[in-house]
Amino acid sequence: MSAWSHALLGALICVGLLVVMPLGLRLVAAPGLTLVHRLWFAAAVPAAASVWLPRGWLAAVSAAAYLPAAAALLLSAGRVVGAGHGRLPGPRAVAVATALAAPSVAGCALVAERAGIRLFGFELDVLALTVAHFHYAGFAAALVAGLVCTVDGDGPAGRVAALCVPAGVAVVFAGFFTSEWVELAGAAVLTAGMWLVGWLTWRRARAGAATRGLLVTSALTLAATMVLALDWALGQAAGLPHLPVSWMVATHGLANALGFALCGLVAWRRLGVRAGWR
């Protein structure tokens, strides 16, 4: 990646840590989050600062401050999944648990990338992109899927969205370790889920003018950015022309971070909706 795309990616990671995560966590009705809310910035500020430090032990130690918070969220995700007492978790629970588990992947990738360690053999740029992906495509997207499922009253469309987004994230993640065709399949499932989330979000755009504008922006952003995601995944798998990573960060990444995640979460906050998990 170029120097400007590295800087932009770093800024998006900071927005994810310092704005999107604390804003989104306020929309989650799940056990064990009170202490995480109170201490969030004690973990997130050093992690965000690490992005701007030279790679090395100091940056890695600063990034590691995020790991306890991510571990607490992962524990909360386990409680959500286990709340069914042996029954399979419902779609809302799957979406909420995915959102809460995603920061643990982002945190591990951040520490490794800041330390200059090629975790599982991945390039350092890939690890940096993973940090951003698991805050936006992981946490924010799964959370919004849980929110639309909640307000949809567990209707069929909401349930499908709440399952497709986590499934797409999981298959894309598996594609990192297997093949680009698996990653393409995951991108297709994730795109279907995100478009469904966008449509359900559009249907909710009946609130006040400001909230309606935020919801419409969030929905329309998904319609465009997920085309870019599919195009990139197809290009990687089939060897077809596609945007380079630097331009994906500047288009798909920037639009999803600000247009989808930030606008969407602010709108849901204004609506006073929280993602249920039962």
From TrEMBL:
Keywords: Membrane, Transmembrane, Transmembrane helix. Coiled coil: none annotated. The keyword S-adenosyl-L-methionine does not apply. Pfam families: YndJ. The keyword Membrane applies. The chain crosses the membrane at residues 6-28, 59-81, 93-112, 124-148, 160-178, 184-202, 214-235, 247-268. This is YndJ family transporter.
